[in-house]
């Protein structure tokens, strides 16, 4: 079985290289720009459409709690319904594990007051519901980054007043819009709470959140540390010589981030190279994780069912809708594979094909540059990409692996120009897709986004956050499609 799996993997890699040359592969999945805000995430496959903007328990989401003043309770997420799995705990990821002290999560401040405190500069990144800009502390001149998230989408306009699918008219549309707005607000609260916790406890490997403010229009401004050192792959390509030793040093930081998250009751759920930036341009600049937009709080034993993340890095149990913190280790294993050969272990022309490849499994360690890579990292990848989360390594076990513990003595032989070239094209394709998504987001009216969110809620008859084939067909029929 292993032999067949590796043969499938080799065939996939060959098609990948054949389609795009030695530089890398066709890009699937959702690739967010640096510090862009909430994503309207969808996946249309043969059987279901998943859009995680479902009804939430708004009352519970408004609570704020934490073990320290830097921790707060974020919005609950009822779309992450937990499977009944033995003694597993049910958790919607809405608040930190432990702690009862409450605080205001996002303080109010008018736009004028915010403008007097911070001077906004050039745009750094943009998403469907937010934009990140360079900013400066007006009093001290300190350079920072400001991520602005539109917390409440408009509920009026054409979208809210359209005839609702299946009847109900404007009233049903208004309910759907209100539910979507509450869900979005809960997402923002949760992101802020997690950033506060990890900023306080994550050390140098986590971008620091300075403050969060909400203006009178409902926009939330996250003022944070500015990372100007560039993305991970860009620096690797720029350095020239790239070896197994260099990959080990970088990867140790990534796994440290996972251990920090898990020890503080957080599952990241969207680990990928684009979510790491170097603090500055110096040679020894620390690598930092910058985005917690899809992260959730958890307790040991909790299970989640919401399908989130970026396709290439998703663990098989995410696709099966029954997962815990082990998914972060899987994502890191995918990153390590890419760091060492320049292409992902599981690929496809679209998200559905990528998911099928992940479920099939099989790793290719025969093609270049794998013959020149030592055995330890290959064994580590196998254990991190174990399809069974129960036997997959934990973050602590990964850090205890001899290859990572002795990263400074790992082989320093160049992995070859082909690997650097693939990493360069892999990074370029990611950026191209982010730009394309940004163009769509900037040119689609808010009312149009609202229309699709409302349609989803009305088609979701059992209110479970997912559309079955029957619900999708019925909804499309009602809408004359």
From TrEMBL:
Q: What segments bear the compositional bias annotation Basic and acidic residues? A: 1-17
In terms of Gene3D superfamilies, this protein maps to: EF-hand, Phosphorylase Kinase, domain 1, Transferase(Phosphotransferase) domain 1
Binding annotation for ATP: 147
Q: Which domain of life is it from?
A: Eukaryota
Compositional bias (Gly residues): 18-27
Name the CDD domains on file: STKc_CAMK (cd05117)
Q: Where is this region: Disordered?
A: 1-27, 59-104
Locations of Low complexity compositional bias?
Answer: 59-78
Q: Which GO terms describe its molecular function?
A: ATP binding; calcium ion binding; protein serine/threonine kinase activity
Q: Which UniProt keywords apply?
A: ATP-binding, Calcium, Kinase, Nucleotide-binding, Repeat, Serine/threonine-protein kinase, Transferase
Answer yes or no on keyword Calcium: yes
Annotated ranges, domain EF-hand: 447-481
Q: Quick one: signal sequence residues? A: none
| Pfam families to which the protein is assigned, alphabetical | Pkinase
Domain annotation Protein kinase: ranges: 118-404
The entry assigns this protein to a family as follows: Belongs to the protein kinase superfamily.
Query: Which protein is depicted?
Result: Protein kinase domain-containing protein
- The scientific name of the source species is Aegilops tauschii subsp. strangulata (Goatgrass)
């Amino acid at each position: 079985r292993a032999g067949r799996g590796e043969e499938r993997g080799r065939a996939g890699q060959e098609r990948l290289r054949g389609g795009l040359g030695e530089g890398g592969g066709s890009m699937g999945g959702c690739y967010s720009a640096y510090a862009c805000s909430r994503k309207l995430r969808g996946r249309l496959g043969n059987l279901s459409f998943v859009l995680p903007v479902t009804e939430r328990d708004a009352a519970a989401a408004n609570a704020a709690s934490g073990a320290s003043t830097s921790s707060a309770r974020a919005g609950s997420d009822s779309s992450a319904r937990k499977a009944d799995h033995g003694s597993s705990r049910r958790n919607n990821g809405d608040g930190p594990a432990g702690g009862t002290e409450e605080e205001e999560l996002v303080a109010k401040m008018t736009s004028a007051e915010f403008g007097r405190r911070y001077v906004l500069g050039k745009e750094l990144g943009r998403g469907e519901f937010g934009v990140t800009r360079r900013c400066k502390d007006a009093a001290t001149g300190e350079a920072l980054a400001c991520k602005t998230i539109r917390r409440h989408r408009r509920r009026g306009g054409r979208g809210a007043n359209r005839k609702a699918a299946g009847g109900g008219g404007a009233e049903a549309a208004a309910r759907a819009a209100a539910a979507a707005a509450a869900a979005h607000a809960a997402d923002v609260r949760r992101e802020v709470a997690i950033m506060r916790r990890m900023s306080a406890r994550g050390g140098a490997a986590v971008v620091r959140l300075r403050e969060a403010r909400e203006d009178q229009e409902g926009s939330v401004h996250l003022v944070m540390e500015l990372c100007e050192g560039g993305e991970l792959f860009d620096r690797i390509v720029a350095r020239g010589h790239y070896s197994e030793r260099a990959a080990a040093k970088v990867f140790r930081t990534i796994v440290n981030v996972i251990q920090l998250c898990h020890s503080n009751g957080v599952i990241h759920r969207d680990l990928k190279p684009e979510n790491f930036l170097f603090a500055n341009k110096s040679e020894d600049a620390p690598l930092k994780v910058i985005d917690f937009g899809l992260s959730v709080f958890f307790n040991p034993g909790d299970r989640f069912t919401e399908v989130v993340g970026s396709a290439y890095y998703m663990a098989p149990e995410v696709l099966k809708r029954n997962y815990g913190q082990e998914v972060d280790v899987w994502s890191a294993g995918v990153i390590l594979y890419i760091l060492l050969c320049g292409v992902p272990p599981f690929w496809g022309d679209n998200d559905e094909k990528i998911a099928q490849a992940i479920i099939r499994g099989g790793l290719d360690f025969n093609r270049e540059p794998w013959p020149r890579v030592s055995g330890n990292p290959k064994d580590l990848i196998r254990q991190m990409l174990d399809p069974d989360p129960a036997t997959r390594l934990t973050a602590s076990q990964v850090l205890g692996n001899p290859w990572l513990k002795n990263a400074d003595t790992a082989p320093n032989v160049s992995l070859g120009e082909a690997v650097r070239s693939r990493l360069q094209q892999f990074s370029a394709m990611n950026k191209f897709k982010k730009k394309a998504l940004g163009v769509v987001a900037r040119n689609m009216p808010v009312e149009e986004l609202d229309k699709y969110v409302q349609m989803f809620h009305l088609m979701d008859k059992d209110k479970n956050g997912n559309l079955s084939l029957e619900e999708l067909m019925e909804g499309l029929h009602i809408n004359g499609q």
